[in-house]
Each structure stands twice: as structure tokens, then as C-alpha cells.
């Protein structure tokens, strides 16, 4: 079925604003939409060819149509002939459609007429259906009420029951109707005055219904039953033509006034007139003439029709008769006789300025005078203040209507009869003085307020219907000559009564058909309950549907409105969960410019499938990729055919809409259905932006901002809504998804240079809409240029709402037509996101939120793998792009800025953290993020790939990447220690040893290593693959692990390292020789040669190439002179043989070897003559040439005291004296006289205590002055005297000690006394 959209109105009222909604331009849909129901009904008769519908009633499969030919046509709904869902045969989705209901004419009857009625062109005025007693009450325009059986439409009660002089029938108790509806929804149905039980089959007790039958003189309360109807009460209230009832209280109307009627006691409360004022002549004859002409035009509109059913005799003063209402339901009466304008060519958008100013568009004239315009206060506010001159309770008009006094009430009680009576406009006679209806007074007539009065719909004037004129009364009339004053013309308006709540009625009043109508809410006491309700024009018909008032406005003769009728919809209660379901206007194109029209609320119709809902909410397969394969096949697989059929059926199920309001005109019937939320909101959304806006003019920016504001407004309407039905769930999801997609396309289309940081709120709203809408993340990723390779559709493909699929297809097709083919990972694609960090941040947050849903049941298991593959791949690229475009100066302005690097680490650092492992590897390789790639490999326990990546990282030389790796070599060593793969540890341990000897040795020698290595095997590996680490490893064995078996090998390695550079002249040799010369040139006192090297030579060569050689030489010296087992473990003779060729260069090494070999003469010769190392010579004498050079310290002694310097040395005093004697002999052999004299003097002065004076005197040349050895001689003599005295004292002390011990022995013997031993006692030895 095709849906007729609502007409022109502002967006706030859900009217017809052209916005380009959906994919193409469309009209904003209001709260209701018109659906074709039945076309071209066979209404013609042999006597009459121009026959129109006058009333309609329907229930279940039965449709009853009353005509202007005084006939009732009974139609029966035919069941569907077969499946309506076409089976798809190709990728193109089938069009969503539903079959129109098909009715067959079952019977055609002509109700009985009164005598002489044929000359009056009778017509069917009202069809009133009572499903309980299964009866249909048919009211003819002649006033004859007949009874028929439901559903076959045969005469009831043998056709013997008829009621003449009837003006209206109906007014069931609305309270019972509401309770029955609630009971039926819970499987319990309790009718009025009885119960038919549950649907389980309990027998009915009473199916009767109590209806009001209004006649010329009285109101009859008739109980209609399966048997003959019974008159319950007859209340004398003449001239009533319409009413509505709740319990015992009925609101009734004559042709002029409204009143409240108590059906039990017959009391009445007059309210106010239907016409609040009449046209009055003005002192200005021009004005009078103009007003008279307008009244004449209005009269012509009301008197002409094609065809025109005549009025009933008893209601000849009422132009339209009466209507039936159940909860606001009213059958249409004759509304013919009004000219209808031609159909407008299109639904034009009305400018907002016109709406705010109260103007009405052309096409439907609404002449509104500011002095007579009515306004509506807020539905929850107080009653409007009445201006001066308005009609109130104490006005003359109110007093002229009369008041019930206590005397009248008493009289009414005394004269009570079975048939109560009342009078309209006079003093009523009450049945009981205690009822609240004794408080009778008239409500004020609708106030005559200026246009600026408060309106319930908004603070601005109400909008005018589509096609209405923006001007007030025509000004062209004012140019006519003034005539005489015209007498007042009485205006007759049809009464309208509905009951929106259980304790109030809504009554419509007005001044003329062309002026606005005003709704007054009154309670059962006749008091106003809320503010007034304003209608654009006084309506011809009005019904209550749910919480909305639907009014049929009069036809307009203006050119733009010919052939179009307008329905005004006003929501009177704000409890609808959908905030977008506001009031508005609905246009119904009739086709015929002069056709009559009417609306009615029927008993019940079947649900229909709304095409515009299903075409949006059906799931279709969207093609995101254009590669060869699944997306290029022309035929569908079996599962795809089945899936499409299932989606069509599901879409039809959730697209069913119910509604009991019909609109009829001529021979056609429409259904008025509540507009689904998805249709209303989607029609307000703009089309997607396919290309960046041209230029940056203020107008272009303003248009862009307006589009975004519209989308955000729609998104706000669904924010916080909780779905209560399946369709509402899909509607909310659809709107959120589409708003998110449209907002995203808006931002993606902005020029790169435009600062999108101005829209943090909009960006967050976009993100929230995409997340809350649960849109497939593959669709969102497809909108980002350069992310095509991160998409995986899978076998099942991507399914999305059809309405969103159209948007996606448009965007993707346009982008593909604009893009140039580029290689994946090309710089062009990566540079495209420079300056668009905010969009990448939005994508990151969106994908991260979706990533947290992994494993949730809300994600389809059929697509879970492809969905999270796409999420991980796109998130990886997004994070890499974010880090590549990182701008520290702009970070503080970005919404949702995070530490991207840490998020990258976190994403890769967990087992099974990514679904698209290969794709992530490719991206990290492409972006040269080797360290992050190694983390990803680690999460998968791919040890070889991890080590290979680290190796590439070091070999790349990228300082930035190495800084990110931190202490990379240490981490590699620790990683290898934890591995069990022997070959892996060997390969990368040797590589590490070549880079860092210490860490490489650690891999093979650390006790924590999980792979244990044999020492000899490691030595062979180092010799072959890492010779630079061989020395360090052997040194580790000897020094750290105390494995002295490898001392010779260690010293041999050092010796080879030291002697190799000395084989030929080179800077190292020159440096060595110069160090000797520099040391010998120093004057005494000076440090040892070893210390001289540490303090002078080594620092001077740090910056040069020889620093390592000098360091190794010092280490070699320490190893050679070591007093530990290292020194005793190596072969001294072998080592001396290797050093012999270099003994003139490696003097210090030879001294150590000579000393360890006991060749003290040679060692001291090198110390004294080659090095001239005085302190070194002294140390040699003290420790016998076996101590570490680095541990020796020179010092002075007086009298030969050395303290702790020699107490730990394993050498005797005698040996030390011999060595000092050798030093003295070598010193006396020095060729430099000055040096020889300094050496001899210092030796004798400082170390004379270790020398024999006789030997000294024997070797000192006779040429030496006595003064040179005077200190030595004095010291020697003193030592001799001291030694003599010490020996004397020592002997004396020993004698004293002997005497003390002897005395103690004698004392002990005396103490013990003698002992006697017998022969038997053993002798103790």
C-alpha cells in the first residue's frame, strides 16, 4: 500500500516541511498518515449515478458503507490468495510491498423510509454497531432508526422495531468501553451489565448495551439486547442532536448550546453556546458590506454540494446533522454542500517566519481577526484570564439562561415522575436536590483574546494548515462603495463533543466556519479543568484517537487548495514516549475538487503493513567491497535466498500498523494511521553529504551547521527512549544508526584545513549514536578512506537496515568514483589523515567500545569472526595513524586524547588479543613499528620471530625505535635465559655476544639459564662465531667461577691480544716506549710504574684507538701478579717463553714472571735499570715479587718498621734482607751518578733496617762520603744497642717467669699433700 504523507507544517508539529529526508527529498511526516484503503466502491444505483459515501463502519472482516442514495453496502474481506513475499533470484533486493485488502460485496440493502421521504433525497446518516448484542443501528436522514443483525445485515427483531423522529443514536458509556478494551487485552471481557467471561469459553450472561436515542422532544435510554430492545428511561430534553456519555453524566448539545445531563436524575447544567458571537454590523458601512459579503460566501459554501443530501426535518437548522461517537468516535453526517479547492501541485515548505508570525500559506483561507482570535493555554496551566466583554458566569447571557434554585429543586423532587424532563436554556427540574448538578451555572463562552495570548502548543502563535492564506479578511472588499448597514446574521455551527479523560469533556466553540475553533475542557460539574485548545478553523468533524484530536477542517476555495482536504492533529496529552509525535496537519488529495468528505472512528480494522516502515527496517545485504568473489556473483546461494525471504517476513511483521480512523470522500475510503516514529524522524533527516562543501563562505558554513543541527535534533528526540515493542526497538536503533552515519559523513566531508576541534560535542554525539545504535562496525570502517583493506565481509556478508543501506551505497559509490587507485599503505593514503586527528580519535573510541563486546551474545556468531577481524585491523591502523600524526601542541584540544603508544602495547600484549594477526603484522611492518611487532609476536609465543624482530630493530639503527625499546640488549639476554630452545638460544646468544660481550656471556654462563651449556662447547662456539667474547667468557670462568683450569688459556688470550700489535711498528708500540721514557724521567719520589699507567697513560689514550690495549695490558698484569690460584695455575716457563721476544717492550710483565720464577736478580735489574721504579723495587723486596701490582702501596719506615705492609706476605725476614741487599747492589750499578746517589741514600735512610751494616759497608765504594751513610750508621748502631738491651731484658723476664712457675708448683704440692700408694694400686704414669 502506498502511504500519503502529511501536509505542510513546521518541524516541531510534525507537519510537511520539505527536507530531503532519507536518501532523496521527501516531506516531513506528521503524527498521522493517510493510507489508501478502498477505491471506486460501486455506489451507483439505476436512479442515481452520482452517489457518495456518507458514513462508514467496520469490524473484523465486515465493512458497512452508508451512501447518499440511502443504501448500505456490506462488504466482506477476502482472505489472501497466497504468499505475498516474492522469492528473490538475484542480488537486487525485492521491493517491499503489501497487498491492499480485497473486499467483496456481500449485500446491498435500503433501510425503510418514512412516508414522503423520497422527495427529500434521503441518505444514511449514521451506522452504529453493537458487537455485544450483535446488532447494527442504522439512522436515516429522515429520522427513522432501524435495527439490523450483525454481521449479515438482515433485519433484526423481524424488522418490527423502528424509532422515528431520531436525530442521534449512540453515546455508549465510555468508561465501560475503556474497561472492556483493557479486559480484552488481558483475556477478560466484562461488558456493561454483565459478563461474557474469559476467552476460554465461559457462557455469556448479558450482552446488552445501553444507548442514547435522541429525538425531537426527549432522550430515550434504550437497552439493546439479543431480544427486543427495552426502553429504560425517557428524559424530556428536546432538540438534542449530539452527545457523549461517561457513567451517569452525558454532555449533550442542541444546535446552539452545550449542556451536562445527569441521566439518572434528569438534571442539567447549561454550559455555553456553540457560537460564541455572531457577525454584527459596524458603524463603518464599508466594513458592514465586507462582512456581509463574507457571510454570504460562507453561506454559499455551506449550501452547495455535489451531491447534497438534505437535512432531516427535525434538524433542519443544523447543516450537518449528528454523528455517532464511542470514545470520541463519530460517524460522518452530511458535510456536502461545500466547495472544495483544486489539488495543490506539491507540498511546499512553509517558511518558519510565517509560522511564528501566525500567517497561513496560500491555499486554505483562514481569515483571523486579532480581536476575535482564540488562543490555547498550556494543557497543564491555569485557565486564561477573560478580557472585558467576554461571556462569564455572571454575564447577562448567562443570567438569561436561568439558574436552578433550591425551590426549583424541591419542586422537581415532589413532582418526580418515571419520565423525567428537562429544558435547555431555561430552569431545569432536578430529580434530587442533593446531587452536585444542583450547582448549575454557565461557563464563560470562549474568550475573545488578542492573537498574542498564550497558546498551549508553544509560546508562538499556532501554525496554520497547508494551503491556507497568510492574510486576514480580504482587503479587496474594502474598495467597494459603502452600502447600508446589514442586520446581524445568525451563524450555525455543528457541535463537537469528545471525552479525552474519564473526568472531563472537550467541547468546541467558535464564531464562524472560517474563524478558529476553541476547545474548552470541562469536568462533570461544568468547571474548566485546563487551558483552551485552539483549532485553525472551526472543524466539520472531530474525533479522538488515543491522545490526539483529529479535526477535519473546512474546504478552501483558493486555487492552491482545490481537491485537497486538510486534517489538523493536536496532541492533548504529553504522555507519549515518542517526543517527536507532535501535532500537525495531514493533507488528503481527493482528486475531485467538489467532493464531500468525512472522518469516522470505526469499531475495528485489521492491521496493515506499512510499506514505508518495511522499506526502511528490512535488513539487506550491503556490499562494502568491490573485489572479485562473493560480491560479483549474479545469483544467490540457497542460504541467501532463505535469508532474504526471512528478512522480508520479519519486516512485514514489525511493519504492521493498526488504526480505526477512516477518511472517506466520494467513492473512496482511506485509513488514517498513526505515523510510525521511524517514518516521522527519518523524513526529517537530510541527504548524506557526498562531496566537501564548495567554498568556505558564511552561507556554506551556515548550511552545513543547519544540517548538523537537524540531525542532532532528531537524535535528541530518541535519546533516552526505552523500547516497549519490537518495532520500537528497531526504530530507535535505525534512527541512531542513520543519525550517526549522517553525522560521520558530515565530518568526513569537511575540508582538511577546517578546524574540527570546534565540534567536540557533535563528535561525541556521533560516537554515542553509532555505539548505542549497534551499527555493524564494518560499515563505519568502510566510510573511512584508506581502511578498505581492513574490511572482511565473510561468507554471510554485512546486513543492515535497508534505509541505511541506501545511504551507504550512495557514499561508497561516490567515493569510489572520485578516488584514484592507490597501493595499500601508500603515503598518499596515510597523509590523507593529517589534520584529522579528531576523526581518528572518534574511530578509536568507537572500535574500542565494540572490542569490549567480544564474546557477548549481542554479536551474531555467524559474523563474529569477520566483525572482530575488521575491528582489530581497523583499530590497529587507526592507532598507528594517530601516533604518526601526533602533534603535542594540539593534544590538549582534542576530545578523548589518550596515550596511543600505551594502547598499542596493550592491544598487542595479551594472548589472542587480535583476530587479524597477519594483517596486524603487515600494518606494523608497513609503519616500521618493529618493537610493537615484537610485542605482538610475544603474545603469540613466537619466540624466533620476537628475537628476529629485535635483531632487525638493532640493525636498523633507528634511534627513535631503539629509544622505545629501552634497555633492549638486557631484555634480549633475559628473554634468552627463559627459553628452552637450544638452537634458538645458541643463534641469538652468539649474535648478542658479538654486540655485547657481557650480555652474550651471561646468556651462556648464567646459572638461571634454562639451557645448560658445557664450558668446552661454549669455548668452541665463541672461538668460531664470537671471538670477541672469548676472552670475556674465559675470564668469567677463571675470575668469577674460580675455574682456574682455564688460567693458561685466559693468559694466552690476553698475551695474544697484547703482543699482536707489538709485532710491527705501530702507534701502540710508540706509546709503550714513550711511557717508559716518561716514567724514567720522573724524579724521586714517584709512584710505581703500574700506578703511573693508571693515572697518566690510560686516561690519555681513552679517546684513541689504544685504550682497549692498555686496559687489557693492565688486566694481564693483574692476572700475572695475582697472589691467588690464578697465579699458581698457569705455566710460568711457557708464559716466559712467549714473552721473551718482547721483554724489552713488556718490562713490567717480565718483572712479574722473573719474580715468580725466583730470578730476583733479573727482576730487580729491570726494576732498577729499565724502569727506575723505586717504590716498585721496595714492594718487590717486601713480598718477594709475588703480590698483585695493584695492591701494593709504597710507604716510609723509620727504623725498619713496615707494620701491616708485610705481615700478610709469606716471606721470611732473611729473604727480604737478601732482596734489599740485591737492590742496593743494583742501585750502586746505576750509571747516572745523581740517580745512583738518590737511590742509595733513600734505601739506606728508609729501608736500612733490612740491611746488614757489614754488608752495606762492604759494598759501598770508598769514595762515598761518610755523610751519605751517617744516618744509616747511626740507625744501625741504635738498632744494635736496642737489640742488645732487648735481649738482656728478655732473658731477665724469662728468669722471673721461671721462678714464678716454680713457686706455684711448690705451693700446689703443699696444698695437695702427700699420697700413699699401696702395692695393689696401679702406678699412674
Secondary-structure topology with pairs:
Elements: E1 3-4, E2 32-38, E3 53-59, E4 62-67, E5 72-77, E6 103-109, E7 124-130, E8 135-140, E9 145-149, E10 162-163, E11 166-170, H1 174-185, E12 209-215, E13 219-224, E14 230-235, E15 242-246, E16 249-253, E17 257-262, E18 268-273, H2 285-303, H3 352-357, H4 396-400, H5 406-414, E19 497-501, E20 504-510, E21 517-522, E22 533-535, E23 541-545, E24 548-552, E25 564-571, E26 584-589, E27 598-601, E28 608-609, H6 611-617, E29 619-622, H7 638-654, E30 656-657, E31 661-665, E32 668-674, H8 677-684, H9 698-718, H10 726-749, H11 760-772, H12 777-782, E33 798-801, H13 802-818, H14 827-831, H15 837-851, H16 864-884, H17 900-908, H18 917-926, H19 930-939, H20 943-956, H21 959-965, H22 968-977, H23 982-995, H24 997-1005, H25 1015-1025, H26 1030-1040, H27 1047-1059, H28 1067-1080, H29 1089-1100, H30 1107-1120, H31 1125-1129, H32 1132-1139, H33 1147-1157, H34 1160-1171, H35 1174-1183, H36 1213-1228, H37 1233-1247, H38 1253-1259, H39 1266-1312
Antiparallel strand pairs: 1-2, 2-32, 3-4, 4-5, 5-6, 7-8, 8-9, 9-10, 11-12, 12-13, 13-14, 15-16, 16-17, 17-18, 19-20, 20-21, 21-22, 23-24, 24-25, 25-26, 27-31, 28-30, 29-33, 31-32
Which keywords apply here?
protein transport; single chain; five-stranded antiparallel sheet; four-stranded antiparallel sheet; alpha+beta; disordered N terminus; 1325 residues; 39 helices; 33 strands
